[in-house]
Amino acid sequence: MFRRRFRMGRNLFLYVVNVVEARDNYFVQRRDAMGRLVVYQMLAYVLPADATNKYIKIGESTTIESIKKFCRVVVEVFAQQYLRSPNADDVARLLRIGKHRGFPGILVTQDCMHWKWKNYPTAWAGQYAGRNGSPTIILEAIVDYDLWI
After folding, report:
1. According to the lineage, what is the superkingdom (predicted)?
2. C-alpha triplet 19, 22, 28: angle, nearest 5°
3. What contacts 24+ positions apart, CB below 8 Å, involve 109-112?
4. Which among 43, 2, 117 has a CA at the least distance from the CA of 51?
5. 1, 6, 93, 143: which one has the fewest Cβ atoms less than 10 Å from its Cβ?
6. 3-class state of residue 139 by DSSP
7. What is the mean pLDDT of each run of 10 residues along the chain (149 residues)?
8. Using the 8-state DSSP alphabet, how is residue 129 labeled?
9. What is the rounded CA–CA span in Å between residue 39 and residue 30?
10. What is the DSSP letter of 119?
11. Which residue, among 56, 43, 51, has the nearest Cα to 13 in the 3D structure?
12. Which of helix, strand or coil describes residue 23?
């Protein structure tokens, strides 16, 4: 249930929560914790800010303020480790892993998938017609084996 609700394991969730709380006391749990929790659910489900008012009774402006604060803290805390370009050691490690997995000289792989688009604008239906006739969006990703890049 937890993984389905937040789209990540409980340990990772608690790690992020603890790091974010330590950096900004805005996210420390208080009596009105819903405004803080909504950030995680909004990111997990890609909800628009006004949808949170309908389902969890949080105003759009509070939701937007919370998401902005959360994103700023996450970038401050994790940018050095996760939002940087690979250095020479990273490239060497990725090449070693690629060689070990049978792909010498390969740093990353490219993949794509078709996501079925349920609530598409009907005027765009022809532009997004998938193989089976229903609209899809193509997600393309370039990643290394552990999703770091």
Report:
1. Eukaryota
2. 105
3. 109/142, 109/143, 109/144, 109/145, 110/140, 110/141, 110/142, 111/140, 111/141, 111/143, 112/138, 112/139, 112/140, 112/141
4. 43
5. 1
6. strand
7. 81 89 82 58 68 72 85 91 84 89 83 78 71 77 74
8. B
9. 15
10. S
11. 43
12. helix
